[in-house]
Each structure stands twice: as C-alpha cells, then as structure tokens.
Amino acid sequence: MNLPPRVTDRAFARLNEIGAADQGQALRVAVEGGGCSGFQYEITLDAPAKDDLVLNGQGETVVVDQVSLPFLEGATIDFTEELIGARFVIDNPNASSSCGCGTSFSI
User: Fold this and answer.
1) What is the CATH number of the domain that holds 39?
2) Does any domain span residue 88?
3) What is the predicted pLDDT for the residue at 82?
4) Structural domain boundaries, residue 91
5) Is residue 106 part of a domain?
6) Does residue 1 sit within a domain?
C-alpha cells in the first residue's frame, strides 16, 4: 500500500458535531462498482469491522474496507458546506474523471 487516505480536520470536526463516536459509529468510506462513471463512493455511518483501515482524529473514526483501500490511496476525505448543501467529499488522485454528482468516478 502506498499512501493511506487522509482525513481533514473539517471532516473529523463534522463527525464530532453529529456525535458519531458517541453512538459507537465511524464514517465508512467505500468504493463500489456502478454510478455514471464506473465506480461510486459509498459514505455511511457504520461500526468499524475487524479488517478495516482505521483513521482516528479528534476522538472520531473514519474506516475504509480492504477492498476499497487501493482505490483510495492518497485520497483526501473532507467535509464541505456549499450553497447546494453540506457533504463529505473525496479528493481522489486515482480518479481519471468524475461526474457532476460528485460521488462517481473512473480510474
């Protein structure tokens, strides 16, 4: 594995605001086949699994499963608030293209 994904302070702060750790939950970032560009991000609150990569900060946890990890090498997991809404976003250097929905990409 090269570089694991990085989680920004903003993303950890948002998890803290919604009390994820207090509920025993972590932010799960996964990559699945599908979407308009071939792959799509699945971002959910979930309990950590035994073989997940665990990223900790500000008392909060972000997890990535082993299957998704190669697709997320060197990626940045962030939280953004824009006019269209607030959401977790992935800046992925492995994606050769993405689409307007922001959750689908190709390699």
Assistant:
1) 2.60.300.12
2) yes
3) 86
4) 6-101
5) no
6) no
CB 81 within 8 A of CB 10: no
Structural domain count, the chain: 1
pLDDT digits over 75-98, tens only?
Answer: 999 999 988 889 999 998 877 766
Which pLDDT band, with edges at 50, 70 and 90, does 35 fall under? low
pTM of this prediction? 0.85
CA 98/CA 106 separation, integer angstroms = 6
* DSSP output for 28-77: EEEEEE-STTSEEEEEEEEPPPTT-EEEEETTEEEEE-TTTGGGGTT-EE
| Cβ atoms 28, 15 nearer than 8 A | no
For residue 38, what pLDDT is reported?
75
pLDDT of residue 59: 96
